[in-house]
Amino acid sequence: AQKITQTQPGMFVQEKEAVTLDCTYDTSDPSYGLFWYKQPSSGEMIFLIYQGSYDQQNATEGRYSLNFQKARKSANLVISASQLGDSAMYFCAMREGPGDSSYKLIFGSGTRLLVRP
Amino acid sequence: DTGVSQNPRHKITKRGQNVTFRCDPISEHNRLYWYRQTLGQGPEFLTYFQNEAQLEKSRLLSDRFSAERPKGSFSTLEIQRTEQGDSAMYLCASSPSTGLSNQPQHFGDGTRLSIL
Fold this sequence. Notes:
Number of strands of chain A: 12
Low-confidence stretches of chain A: none
Oligomer: heterodimer
Shape of chain B: globular
Largest sheet of chain A: 6 strands, mixed
Structural class of chain B: mainly beta
Distance between the termini of chain A: 38 Å
Strand content of chain B: over 45%
Low-confidence stretches of chain B: none
Helix content of chain B: under 10%
Helix content of chain A: under 10%
Radius of gyration of chain B: 14 Å
Order of helices and strands of chain B: EEEEEEEEEEE
Mean pLDDT of chain B: 93
Radius of gyration of chain A: 14 Å
Structural class of chain A: mainly beta
């Protein structure tokens, strides 16, 4: 079974509107971290936001926020006020285990977001 | 902080040739990772170094693949006798050992390998 599932291969959003990118995960480890990365066409993976399994509040970083629903094992990324520069691939990733003891990130297959002017 | 640097950006080679990629991590980062990303997929973990020690290798890393980090600074990834299936983007990442769960890995721009 896949550990990280991103069910939306592609999404469109109108500039200045909000968009939600879905991510569900599967783990039996009570300690884990969830990361979202952005990958523009240039190839570099850019870290956006982090949510820990024990965090009580949803993470926010500027226009990015996480809708973390632990019981449903989902960690959806919300981008508010979309900009043309947000057009890219977005990957959800998980690291299992406490702290940074586990070094391996497990990635989903990504969602391609296109922002329309 | 100059970021993670990877060279070359692109490599085109014929099947059966050997290729070597280089990764220069962020200077104070003692952890270094290699991932492989095929078209339409997310990155897949290949191997991990803590300083100069290679502590983990994925089953994806066949005997034709070898990675080194001789002085705990830069790393090289070599693929011998390349095959069509080796065509992919090879990503390098680095991070410090902070013990913090929110510590992200910082990625380079990757090396895109095309096998003719």
